[in-house]
Amino acid sequence: MLDEKTITDHGLTSEEYDQIVRLIGKHPNLTELGIFSLMWSEHCSYKSSKHHLKKLPVTGKNVIQGPGENAGIIDIGGGLAAVFKIESHNHPSFIEPYQGAATGVGGILRDIFTMGARPIVSLNSLRFGPLSLPKNRAIMDGVVGGIAGYGNSIGVPTAGGEIYFNECYSLNPLVNAFCLGLAKKDKIFYARAEGEGNAVLYVGSKTGRDGIHGATMASAEFNDDLEEKRPNVQVGDPFREKLLMEACLEIMEKSLIIGIQDMGAAGLTCSTSEMAANAGSGIEIDLDLVPQREKGMTPYEIMLSESQERMLIVAKNEKIKEVQQVFSKWDLEAVVIGSVIKGGNLIVKSSGKRVVDIPVNAIVNLCPVYEREMRPPESYAPPLIIKEIPLPQDYNSSLLKLLSSPTIADKKWVFRQYDHMVQTNTVFFPGADAALLRIKNQKRALAISLDGNSLYTSLGPKTGGAIAIAEACRNLACVGAYPAGVTNCLNFGNPEKPEIMWQFQQVIEGIAEACKAFEIPVTGGNVSFYNDTDGISILPTPVIGVVGIMDDINTAVSPGFKAKETPIVLLGENQEELGASEYLKHLHKKEKGCPPELDLIKEKAVQKLCLEAISQRLLLSAHDLSEGGLAICTAECAFLSPAKIGCSLSLSESMRTDALLFGESQSRILVTVDKTNLERLLTLSQEFGVPANILGKTGGDRLIFFHNNKKVIDTAVKDAFNIWEQSIPDFFEPK
Amino acid sequence: MKFGVVVFPGSNCDSDTLYVVKEVFNQEAEFLWHKDHDLKNSDCIIFPGGFSYGDYLRSGAIARFSPLIKEVREFALNGGLVLGICNGFQILLELGLLPGAMLRNKNLKFLCQHVNIRIDNTDTPFTLAGNIGQVLSIPIAHFDGNYYIDNNSLKDLHKQNQIVFRYSEQNGNLSKKSNVNGSINSIAGLINKNGNVLGMMPHPERASEAILGSDDGRVIFESIIQYFDKVKKPQPC
Known about the structure:
The structure holds 2 protein chains of 2 kinds.
Chain A: H1 4-9, H2 14-24, H3 30-39, H4 42-45, H5 50-53, E1 63-65, E2 72-77, E3 80-88, H6 90-95, H7 97-113, E4 118-128, H8 134-154, E5 158-165, E6 174-184, E7 199-204, H9 214-217, H10 238-253, E8 259-262, H11 267-279, E9 282-286, H12 299-304, E10 310-315, H13 320-329, E11 334-341, E12 345-350, E13 353-359, H14 360-364, H15 395-404, H16 412-415, E14 426-428, E15 435-438, E16 445-451, H17 454-459, H18 461-479, E17 482-491, H19 498-518, E18 522-528, E19 532-533, E20 536-537, E21 541-550, E22 567-571, H20 582-588, H21 600-615, E23 619-624, H22 629-639, E24 647-651, H23 657-662, E25 669-673, H24 678-688, E26 692-698, E27 702-707, E28 710-716, H25 717-732
Parallel strand pairs in A: 4-5, 9-12, 17-18, 24-27
Antiparallel strand pairs in A: 1-2, 2-3, 3-6, 4-6, 7-10, 7-11, 8-10, 9-11, 12-13, 14-15, 15-16, 16-21, 17-21, 19-20, 22-25, 22-26, 23-25, 24-26, 27-28
Helix pairs in contact in A: 7-8, 7-10, 8-10, 10-13, 15-25, 18-19, 18-21, 21-24
Chain B: E1 2-7, H1 14-24, E2 28-33, E3 44-47, H2 69-77, E4 81-85, H3 87-95, E5 101-103, E6 111-119, E7 135-142, E8 146-148, H4 151-159, E9 163-167, E10 187-191, E11 197-200, H5 218-232
């Protein structure tokens, strides 16, 4: 029997160990313990989150595959299915930013093509600490380089995403990678080891000692032994993955296989046991047959390795040769390492000995589920007394300061490192409200938005969760797409802390409520707990990915002003809200107050109005109001206009000028419209019950704002643009 | 006419290029697998962009050892049209079909963005439909596009009028700023002495449909097709 230290070193509690002994009817040997350690880790088992995730709506008439598989799938019409998912790679990206981020991209790509879909777009959601610290710049430089290095090489466009900065991510950056692929609806593959006697093939890269215990690492907090964990991070080889992708898609196109699963977290362990468990069968493999990169690897190491670019395939014996021919064409190995067996056990042999013999059901499905204690933090939302916030003396300088906040500033320094055009489907480049991709030879298009404001979720977790969904959908509406499916990546601290669990539960409730309102299903995602370093947790950070469908790509609308002398109309209404705003954080150094209120009925109405106006081709531009409020939104519309057209706006609400300019009230969209269509837009707004106010018109080369007839902002578009554009590069390329 | 698009392991603009010549320009086109020895009667061979062999060792360095290279080399030496785009340009340099070499971009980062390039030579099969001084907006997407050549050879390039495209401002002026990757003399594309092998870093296949933001790249494919129609097609007696 293994000693207590070995058991705790594997991240298992003594209760969990006793449970294992009961389930398998014996004391596990070291390799078996390693298998349970991985599969019962938080990362693989969702043991703390399962209970709460049940609240999310997962069904809908367009859902082909909900949560539980490698990725979610929705029917997008025309015989096509969109296969998509978002996943975190936070822990590895902190330890080794370049490889951590690169393998995050590699992993999510495999999740997509495993199901028979060709990946057509990647996006990612990143969180870093303040760039004033060199360590954070090094992390960001590495992460962006890693995403670019992998995605560019494999030839999948990285068409956007979002980046936020906050002190809490200083020692805990977040890297959430999203990928979407297209498959024929009737040609989708699943991770199932069906049919006794069928062959189990190992394909792709050889197995090495890298990444052993990656999933366990991702299920614990970090402290100062960080450097020791570097070998736990895998090394990516995008070229190998490109070959693997082409070979896999080719065998699937030729219908040569029965089931397939990528080897991601927990490698060979996870793929063998999950494929068997999903099919209610057993699986037997011989480790002597597994291609290995180095000599003398123990069964423990081979089973736990997280070497990248590997897949497990189940095929009928008569197809083995054809499968091998395809892999050989792509200069890859495809080796039979075992077979599907009767009964329900995972049997692993090495040097003629049986080194593992345990029921797959126990590994995959019987991990204990926890309903962990929850408790609101004592002071989670320090109240904001708005009168205590001094009014700025000079709104010009407030605007310029806010434009230089890295969270708001131009992200071109990042996006131009990504090949966002390969595959020639990207219609809207990074920086638009949503990534927009055409589908060749079709009118239909896909739009994708990622969203998640952790200031909101830390100060009001439930509202913040709902806003993340609402804003992602609003972004789609601004382009002209309606939401069809959701994937989420839930990044939180240590779930064993009752305050963290409470945040998690609240955020889930908010997400669930908003999804129900929009009638969109959550088709999968990922939970990343233990984002803590030295006992300090990150702010709760749900990242929402919403996939939208556009019926006619020719009607798509982008955010930049298109012409001079066009009326500027605000859809929705301004409220005096400053809580949790970027303005408070960046200019007043306060993370306080409640996030803006969200009324889901109003939100839906404004989005429906925008969609209708776009489909009637009434709008010239549309941009959603988010961080930095009306002033920042307006400035961005000017910056994103090819001719850098300015504008003049007259506001007349009776409220604080700073709240009016920089407050982040929800359910607002700024649009421009040709004069001849103005009346139609206003009538349409009335029909939808949405307030629509003409704020001013485009023209000139300055950004001018009046509040109650007093000029509060007057600045050259060019000057403001330079500040916005140069803020991030200035941290990396000192003059 | 018929285009052959070569597929190396790691090519990733092969499908984009095939799509453009086939669907946008309605020409015959086929993939040519790098392990074969068959050019399938193509009239113009395209080395597409991507990361052939992962760009390991050096961009384009390993692709030159692919079996099909033997046939492409003979085809080129016999005057056949060969177009190398991005990684394809890098391969042409490694093959020695074009002179010079690529360094890392001057900012040491991958760059993906629309750039302006000026046509400096329309006396080629690849640019005859354009005008001297015409500025095209075409995207680049590369890490190693900083073209370098020694001084004497550079003089030769000028003398022989081999420089076809140069990075420029929108008005056609050359500047340090418009020379995004730091190429010597802002060179974005060049042709061999015989005038049948062109290498260019920008991706014309990404700028051949207005919906993608620019269709300025069409002029390159249109030139090739016009050239073939006028010059190569047997004229009726």
